Amino acid sequence: MRNFRGLALALLALLPAVAGCGAEGGDEDTLTVLAAASLTESFREIGERFTEQNPEVELRFNFQGSSMLAEQIRQGGAGDVFASANAEMMDKVRQAGAVVRGPETFATNRLTVITPPDDPAGIASFSDLAQPGVSAVVCAPQVPCGSAAEGVERNSGVRLHPVSEEDDVKDVLHKVTSGEADAGLVYVTDAVAAGDQVRRVEIPEGDQVTNEYPIATLEGNGDRSAARRFTDFVRGQQGREILRRHGFGAP
Questions:
Q1: Which residues are annotated as a binding site?
Q2: The pTM is what?
Q3: Annotated binding-site ranges for molybdate
Q4: Theoretical Cys-Cys bridge with 103: which of 5, 35, 81, 216, CB 3.0 to 4.6 Å?
């Protein structure tokens, strides 16, 4: 299933980015932002605020797993700004020569456990995810949320046996909210976004593994001044406040 999904998303990347906001305009005014899936809600709000103040810019978002976005950029995919869920994926893009400004860290995030509201498996701790009969879902190890999950496993000494490893954190969230899994390991920000659709279980082990989120201006084809203004907005006071309200930590 994951291979099929990865192929489908790669094909979708060949199409114009969607989920835009802002004023309509020509290509010279279009700014394409490639952002980690965990940034979906916060960056949509940031985008609305940014375009209110920069109405000449048509802002388009492409939200996917950071590893998939990094590979698209390395293969020449279109994009003007990249916001990653960890430094490793940004380093790959930088080493490919695609970064023209940055990267700079703008936020942090950590993992938490979520369950359906009725908590059918009685999950009270991280170690409960490893109990027999518990269907736990995590991110695949090659993506930032999966790498963080491995860090939590190492620090806790608990080895998980997930029933599924997903390509991005939103897929983990969906498995839990749809009732397909007893529990999932997601970012705090995704638990905040889900609201009463999930029950959140605080895990001290998650506090020891923090993902830093870097942002950079890419070679791109759009207006670099608009890209710089957007990255500055994300890192500025208004951007930081929006990120804080969505559950992100300070850089």
A1: 38, 66, 169, 187
A2: 0.84
A3: 38, 66, 169, 187
A4: 216
